[in-house]
Every structure is written in C-alpha cells, then in structure tokens.
Specification:
With about 240 residues, this protein is an alpha/beta fold. Helix content is about 40%, strand content about 25%. This is Alpha/beta hydrolase-fold protein.
Length: about 240
C-alpha cells in the first residue's frame, strides 16, 4: 500500500451554535476515503477533538484500517475544548458538566446528523475519550442510553463520582465499553489532586461487570500520555467498526 494514502485526509471544520453553552463550539470532521453523501456511515465522536487528531493521529489510523484491514469507513467528529475549562466541562463535579452533556446530546448530535450522512442507530455511534474525556463519554451513555451504547475509554478518570453513578445502575447489559489503562498510572496528577487511575479503573470495571455491561478491559505498561493511547486506538476502533 502506498504510504502516502494514509496521510491524505479530508477534514472539515464546523462551528455548532449552542444555547446550552452560550457559545459556538468548534468541530473537526474527518471524511473517509471515497466519501459519498449518498452512503451512510458509522460515526466516532471524540472528546478533546484537537488532541485526538494531532496527538492520537486518529485520521491516519482510520485511513490505515480502511485500506489495510477492510474496516468499514467511518466519519470521525472531534469536539474541541478550551483546556482552561476542560475540567469544569468533563468532570461530573464540574460547573459546566450538565450544560456540556446537554449540548453534546441535544445540539451536537442533531447538528451532525442534519449535515452529514451518519447513521442514527445507537450502535452506529461510538463515543471516545481520554482521561476525563473517557469519563464524560461514559456519563453521556449512562444519561442518554437511547443515543449511545458504545464507549472507548483511554485511561478514563473513573473516580468516586463516576463509581457512585455506576452504583445507581442495575442493568447495563445494553452498554459496551472498551477500556485500556496503563500500569504506570498509579499516581496521576490532575487539577483536583493525585489519583491512582489503575485502582479507579479496576473498581469501575468491577461495577460495570456486576451490572452485565459488556467490557473489554486491558492493563498494559503505559503512562497517562498520548504516546500510550495512540497505540491503543487501532484495535479499539476495529473492535467497534
């Protein structure tokens, strides 16, 4: 395969007006090779959109999966975030968390579905996030089960508020979660303190499994950085697509 094909990409920028957030939010949207508006596509929604494209190299990864591994072409929607308010939007304890979740489910999804030929079944929408992005992705699925049933979590920050949220559920048999955590993530420094992400993910995995969630969970050597997560994206995307 001509390596150059991996790096040829069509990425469209959009601005979504949001009443919930009181602002417009920038998206970057990857259109797969051979994109055709008459077809319909599964769609991957990424928190930290800029990071997924720049550091996660998700567009190159998707091209490679399509060309080399016959993975079904998908549209990827990266939702940008202002790093200075990221915690308040992505953390369940954050001031902007409820507004961000409303924006995502009630404004962003309809916008994308009105403008692009994405499938509208819950099993054709994938949520993906790293760290707190994994957290907000899981909470979106829990709060909007009719919209989202598949979540990719790269070292999700599944701390106490998320564990308590999972404890409120009785049946998660409708939910599919792919989780990866690096074994070097026992002391992750965050805005709100230092946490053992390995232990948090183990507890959350147990809570999910007890509620019949379909979980594929991997622990491997790795730090809380994109260098680790970038390597994990291919198998996770392939699993859902």
């Amino acid at each position: 395969m001509d390596q150059d094909l991996y790096y040829k990409r069509t990425i469209v920028k959009e601005l979504v007006p949001s009443a919930s957030l009181g602002e417009t939010r920038a998206l970057r949207i990857y259109l797969p090779p051979g994109y055709n508006e008459l077809l319909s596509y599964p769609v991957v929604y990424c928190q930290d959109g800029e990071d997924f494209f720049n550091f996660g190299r998700i567009a190159t990864t998707m091209n490679r999966l399509i060309y080399d591994e016959n993975v079904e072409p998908a549209i990827i929607v990266g939702v940008d975030v202002d790093k200075s308010i990221r915690t308040s939007e992505y953390s369940p304890d954050g001031e902007r968390f409820a507004a961000y979740c409303r924006f995502f489910a009630e404004e962003l999804i309809p916008f994308v579905e009105d403008h692009y030929p994405v499938r509208r079944e819950s099993n054709a929408r994938i949520l993906a996030g790293d760290s707190l992005g994994g957290t907000v992705s899981l909470h979106l699925a829990l709060d909007y089960p009719s919209l989202f049933t598949q979540v990719i979590s790269l070292s999700g920050a599944f701390l106490l508020s998320t564990q308590e949220r999972l404890g409120m559920e009785s049946d998660l048999s409708w939910l599919q979660l792919l989780m990866v955590i690096g074994l070097d993530e026992k002391e992750v420094k965050t805005e709100r303190g230092t946490f053992d992400f390995v232990e948090a993910n183990r507890i959350s995995k147990q809570l999910l499994t007890e509620r019949s969630c379909s979980v594929i969970y991997e622990e491997k050597p790795g730090k809380h950085v994109w260098g680790f997560w970038q390597q994990e994206l291919p198998w996770m995307l392939k699993r859902f697509l």
